[in-house]
Design a protein that fits this description.
Order of helices and strands: EHEHHEHEEEHEH
Number of strands: 7
Strand content: 15-25%
Largest sheet: 5 strands, parallel
Distance between the termini: 36 Å
Helix content: 40-55%
Shape: globular
Structural class: alpha/beta
CATH class: Alpha Beta
CATH architecture: 3-Layer(aba) Sandwich
Number of domains: 1
Strand order of the largest sheet: 2-1-3-6-7
Length: 234
Amino acid sequence: MKLMHVDASAKRERSNSRALSRFFVERLRAGHPDLEVDYLDVSVDTPQHVDEAFAIATYAAPHERTPAMKARLAASDALCQRVLAADALVFAMPMYNWSMPSAFKTFVDAISRAGVTYKHGDDGRIVGQLAGKKVLFITSRGADLRPGSPYASMDALTPALKAAFEFLGVAAPAFVDAQPLQFANQEARAEALERARDELSAVAVTWANSAKAASHANNADAAQHEDADSEMTQ
């Protein structure tokens, strides 16, 4: 399994979302030692914000793009290929003012590309190219936004992530939300982080088992093809 692991917190060692994403990758690797990880920290390697040049170039037909347009899209092209090459994607981020960090929004803008990560079907429908990939969002939240809490209606992060990636073909992403953290007492914070780690451990087991099953199936197919080739040469 090839995993693309993206962190988006502005914090480093004090970041809860980073710690949780590391925890998840460690658990996944424990269950699937052949795991290959492509890591990106968008708070450091932040994709360029959408500007006029990008907005014009991205919707120009490929054969009509000038060298300047191609140069403006080069970083986005490369990022799209990294996403498309992954079997699974894990995105970790804090909630900032009810939604996603601006650095992660630039990532979403950079990988939302007509003709690359989504295409127009013959019937006019949008066909997202990330269909079939496992996707996990790990978020850390200062307040408690779970259903029934006073702040539940202020969660703009979950619907934004669902909408952006559903458009790209991700039908059922997994969410693990650590909450409440910043605006909670020490006991509540500890419970929230333990809850998140338990959920991440469960997702890691599911993904690892799925990867093993896929690997066994591929090996079986390869063996069948070898047997067929052998019979043909006899």
